[in-house]
Design brief:
Blueprint: H1 3-24, H2 33-45, H3 64-77, H4 85-98, H5 101-112, E1 118-121, E2 137-141, E3 144-152, E4 162-168, E5 179-185, E6 191-196, E7 205-216, E8 220-221, H6 227-236, H7 243-263, E9 265-266, E10 269-270, H8 275-303, H9 311-334, H10 351-360, H11 370-381
Parallel strand pairs: 1-4
Antiparallel strand pairs: 2-3, 3-7, 4-5, 5-8, 6-7, 9-10
Bound molecules: flavin-adenine dinucleotide (FAD).
Flavin-adenine dinucleotide binds near residues 123, 154, 365, 371 and 372.
Length: about 375
């Protein structure tokens, strides 16, 4: 299939669907989970899921350039994010690589059609950056494991049908070696989900408690105690394309911010004439350009089927920190309006800057904190001593 034709088809579908959503959900923000689920269901129904998965399992077998083009077009069209990103981006590829035939047949169709939403049960109260010190236990009892423990920050657990879980199956083994990877039905007796309210007002992640939850041994992916390798491979699947929608979004935010700086007035003059605002905008422009070059290099390496290297840490660090800078600049530009609550009519149009700024605090934490990225760059890119 021709990439240009594919891109044009994607653009026209996405533009039409985003317009339809705006009419059907008038006034509802694109962060709303029902809206997001509706859009993702339609996207899957129209055959835009599993773009890179093999045709034998219902995918479209397209090369990575096509996936990148689709993500770019989604971000340009202003499409909402899905709620099953973890199913599509992490669990699906993990099963394709390491699942049994039976597991692929059983679980992949639900992801492709979006009828099964997945969450990722890795982090625990005392195991985040140091994930391998996780303590949730799974003990063998006949054809089942019995799981006890607690997970935290589990995104979408409150709406998920399934969870892929890292649990300790051999407490005596060195910490990376006694972990297994289980697929758990969220309706199993013994699971309690407690939502956590975020500072942006939303509620996307949860605490999840497991009290003697029975999980069939047939739901283990890979060998017993080989879960760590699976989790590490899973973390690398989206690395080459992860930043594409985020960079398009950042470029569009910068464009909007330049427009705001012309409109907003300071001391009777347009804010864009303020040297500090101009400096901030120029800095963000350079950040975006640098990020685009890095992202392009990473995508080209993935298209050549090269293994992703530690330079992904560099782009994660630069993206998350420069995005926070851009949104801090937005609040500085808005001035007192930045702190108005949503009930203020004057704040309505520019309310999203406040929300985006609050959400961006998570970006230097999730998928490896900035400190952890700096450690990786120091040790593995620059070769500094530990
Ligand atoms: C929005 C969001 C969604 C998330 N979704 C999920 C999910 O779906 N499933 C899931 O399992 N997890 C999820 N997480 C959890 C995320 O993976 C963890 O927050 C992250 O790994 C950091 O762990 P922690 O919060 O326990 O912080 P800690 O590891 O306790 O870190 C605390 C502080 O210490 C610093 N630190 C820790 N170790 C070192 C070190 N060796 N050197 C220098 N500094 C260090 C950290 O950088 C940080 O500043 C999510 C997090 C966020 C913010």
């Amino acid at each position: 299939m021709d990439l240009h034709a594919f891109r044009a088809e994607a653009r026209s579908w996405l533009t039409a669907e985003v317009a339809r959503l705006r009419v059907e959900f008038r006034g509802v923000p694109f962060t709303d989970l029902v809206l997001r689920r509706t859009f993702e269901d339609r996207l899957c129904g129209a055959g835009w899921s599993g773009l890179g998965w093999p045709a034998e399992v219902g995918g479209r077998g397209l090369p990575i350039e096509f996936i990148a083009a689709f993500l770019e077009e989604s971000a340009r069209a202003g499409a909402p994010k899905g709620v099953n990103l973890i199913g599509h981006g992490i669990l699906g590829p993990t099963l394709l690589l390491s699942g049994t035939e039976e597991q692929k047949q059983r679980f992949l169709p639900g992801i492709l059609s979006n009828t099964a939403v997945w969450c990722q049960g890795y982090s625990e109260p005392d195991a985040g950056s140091d994930l391998a010190s996780l303590r949730s236990r799974a003990e063998r009892d006949g054809d089942d494991y019995v799981v006890d423990g607690q997970k935290i920050w589990t995104s979408f657990a409150h709406i998920a049908d399934w969870c892929f879980l890292l649990v300790r199956t051999d407490p005596a083994a060195p910490k990376h070696k006694g972990i297994s990877f289980l697929l758990v039905d969220m309706k199993s007796p013994g699971i309690t989900v407690r939502p956590i309210r975020q500072m942006d007002g939303g509620q996307e992640f949860n605490e999840v408690f497991f009290d003697r939850v029975r999980v069939p041994v047939a739901n283990r992916v890979g060998a017993e105690n080989a879960g760590w390798g699976l989790a590490m491979a899973a973390a690398s699947f989206e690395r080459a394309t992860y930043f594409i929608p985020r960079l398009v979004q950042m470029e569009e935010e910068l464009r909007d911010l330049v427009a705001e700086s012309r409109e907003i007035r300071r001391n009777g003059r347009p804010a864009c004439e303020d040297p500090l605002i101009r400096d901030g905008l120029a800095r963000s422009f350079l950040d975006v350009q640098a990020l685009k070059l890095h992202a392009r290099a990473m995508l080209a390496a993935a298209a050549r089927h090269e293994q992703p290297g530690p330079e992904g840490s560099f782009i994660k660090l630069l993206w998350s920190e420069s995005h926070q800078r851009l949104l801090e600049l937005a609040l500085a530009l808005l001035g007192p309006e930045a702190v108005l609550g949503p009930e203020e009519p004057t704040a309505q149009r520019r309310r999203h800057w406040q929300y985006d700024h609050l959400w961006s605090r998570a970006e230097t934490i999730l998928a490896g904190t900035s400190e952890i990225q700096r450690n990786i760059i120091g040790e593995r890119v620059l070769g500094l001593p530990r």
